[in-house]
Amino acid sequence: MNAGLNGQGTKARYRGLQKVSRQRYIFLFVALAPSLLGYLLFTLYPNVLSIYYSLLDWDGLTDAKFVGIDNFVHMFQDKFVWRALYHNLLLIVVVPVLIVLISLVLAYLLNNKTYRENSLYKVVYFFTNVLSTVVIALLWAFIYDGSFGLLNGILGIFGLDMNSFYWLGSSSTALWALVVPMVWGGVGLYVVIFINAISAIPKSLYEAAELEGARPMTMLFRITIPLLRSVIRVCVVFIVLGTIKGFELMLVMTNGGPEGSTDVIGLYMYNLAFGKDYHNYGYASAIGMLLFVILVAAKYIIDKYYPEEKVEF
Amino acid sequence: MDWVWRLLLFLWAASIVFPIVWIVLQSLRTNAEFFQNIWELPSQLQWGNYTKAWTSYNVGKSLLNTLYYVGVSLVLGTFLTALNAYALTRMQFRGRAFIWSLIMLSLFLPGINALIPQYILMKTLHLTNSLTGLIILDSFGENVFFLMLLGGFMASFPKDLEESGAIDGASLFQIFWKIIVPLSTPGIVTVAIFKFLGLYNNFLGPLIYLSDPAKHTIGVNMYHANMKMQFTSDWVTMFAGIIIVMIPSIIFYILFQKRIMAGATMGAMKG
C-alpha cells in the first residue's frame, strides 16, 4: 500500500511536471513566435529577396524577366548614379564633421560654464530631435523661400538684399542649403551624449591645465576631444551611415532638384521604385544592393582607420 | 572673451526657437498682411487660419488615422517586445542562442535595400493601402536596441523571482504579467517613449504604403498639403497646419523630456 501510494505520487508529480513543461512550451511559443515570425517575414526574407530582385528586369506590371548582372552593368554606366554618389560623398565629408564639432563645442560650453540659462539650452537644443523629418523639412522650406523666407528677411535687415534669391531653387546652393537642416536637426542629440561623456572626465585634469594657463578651447582640443575618442567614434559611425542612406529631407524639400543637384543615391533608388512615372523594381533593387555594399564598406573603413582606443583616466 | 561663448550658446538656441515663434506669429495673420511684411506682429489674431487648416487639409481625419496607427502599434509592439525580452533573457530553452544570433543579424542590415521586396511582399499579402497593414508591419519584428534595453533591465532581477511565483501556483503568463511587468515598468516606459517617437515621426512607411488620401497620417498629409500650397500660395494656413502637427510633439517632449534624453544617450554609451 505504501509502495502503491508512492507510485501514485510519482505519477502525479510526473503528470504535473509534464503539464508544467507543456505550459512552458506554449508560453515560449506565444512569447517568441509573433516577433520572430514578423522579423523573418518582413525583415530577413525581403533582405534575401533583394539579391534576387536586383537580377530582374521588372516594372511591376508585366512579368519579371531574369537578366543576370545587366542591372549592375547598366548601373556603372549610369551617370545619374555617379552624380548621386558624388552628392552623398560631399555630405559624408561635411555633415559628420559639422555635427560633431558643433555639438562638442556646445556640450563643452554647457558643461564648463555656469551660465544660468544652460539647463534651458540643453532642453531647447534637444528639441529638434523629437521633430519629424517632414516638419523640419517644411520649416526650412519656409526659411529658404525667396520672397517670403525668414533667411532673406534676416539678411535684408542687415542690409543684404538677396533679390528674392530662392536658396533651394539654384543648383549651386541647394545641396549646401540642405546641409544646414541636417546639422540643425542632429546636433541636439550629440550635445546631450557629449555632455554625459564630458562630465565623466575628472575635473582635476582641467584644474591642472588651468594652472598651467591653458585657454578653454585649448583644453577642448587637448583634453576633452582626445578623451572622448571612443564616444566620438560611435557618433561618427552613426552619422555617416545615416547620411549615406538618408533621403527623406531631400524628398520633401527638393525631390532631388533643381536639375538633380540634390539627388542622393537613396532618393534615386526611391524614385525609381516608388516615383510618379516609370517604375523599375529590378534596377532600383540593384542600386539598393550597391547601397548595402557601400554601407558595409563605410563601417569597415571607419573601424579600420579610426581604431578604438581604450583611454584611462 | 566670455561673452562670445555665451552669445554662441544663445545663437544656437535662437536658431531653434526663433523660426518656430515666427511661424506661430505669422500663422495668426492674413496672407495679405504676411505678403506685405513678414516681420510684423499680428494686428488681429486670425484663429480662422487654424479652422481652415483643420478643414481644408482634413487634419481631423488624418489625426484619427495617426492615433489609430500609433496607438495600436505602440500598445501591441511594446507588449510583444516585453514578452519577447522576458523569454529571451530569463528563460532557458534550446535554440535560444540561435534566436539571439538571428536577431543580432539585423544590426548588419541597413534596411534600405529591403524596401522594394518588402513593398512587393506587403502588396501580395494585401496589406498595402491599409493602416492595419502598416500596424502589422511595424509591430511584429525584432529590435535589438529595445531587447537589450529591456533585457538588461529584466536580467538584473533576482533569480528566484519566478520560483517563488511558481510555488504559489501562478502560471508563466501570470508571473510575467503580475511580477515581471510591474518591476520592469521604467524600462517599458522608455521603450514605449521611443516607439512613440518613431511611430509618430514615421514618414517613409506611411508615404509608401498608404496611397488613399483618406488613410494618410498627419505627416504624409502635411507633405501633400505643402505640394498643393505651391499652387495656392496660402501660406498662413500652411503655417497653422505645421503648428498643429508640432503640438503633439511639443506636449510629448514637455512630459517626457528627462526620460527621452536619458534613453537617447544610453545607446551611444553602450555602443
TrEMBL record, chain A:
Superkingdom of this protein's organism: Bacteria
CDD domains from the UniProt entry: TM_PBP2
One cellular-component annotation, GO: plasma membrane
Membrane topology: Multi-pass membrane protein
Transmembrane parts of this sequence: 25-45, 89-111, 123-143, 174-198, 219-244, 281-302
Compartment(s) where it occurs, according to its Swiss-Prot or TrEMBL record: Cell membrane
Residue ranges of every copy of the ABC transmembrane type-1 domain listed in the record: 85-302
A Gene Ontology BP annotation from the UniProt entry: transmembrane transport
Gene3D superfamilies named among the record's database cross-references: MetI-like
UniProt keyword terms in alphabetical order: Cell membrane, Membrane, Transmembrane, Transmembrane helix, Transport
Entry's family note: Belongs to the binding-protein-dependent transport system permease family.
Protein name per its UniProtKB record: ABC transporter permease
Species, as recorded: Paenibacillus agaridevorans
Automatic annotation (TrEMBL), chain B:
SUPFAM superfamilies named among the record's database cross-references: MetI-like
A Gene Ontology cellular-component term: plasma membrane
Topology within the bilayer: Multi-pass membrane protein
Pfam families for the chain: BPD_transp_1
Domain ABC transmembrane type-1: 63-256
UniProt xrefs under InterPro entries: MetI-like, MetI-like_sf
Keywords: Cell membrane, Membrane, Transmembrane, Transmembrane helix, Transport
Xref: CDD domains: TM_PBP2 (cd06261)
Any single biological process term in GO: transmembrane transport
Keyword hit for Cell membrane: yes
Subcellular location: Cell membrane
Gene3D superfamilies, A to Z: MetI-like
Residues annotated as transmembrane: 7-25, 66-86, 98-121, 133-155, 175-197, 235-256
Family statement: Belongs to the binding-protein-dependent transport system permease family.
UniProt name for this protein: ABC transporter permease
Organism from which the protein derives: Paenibacillus agaridevorans
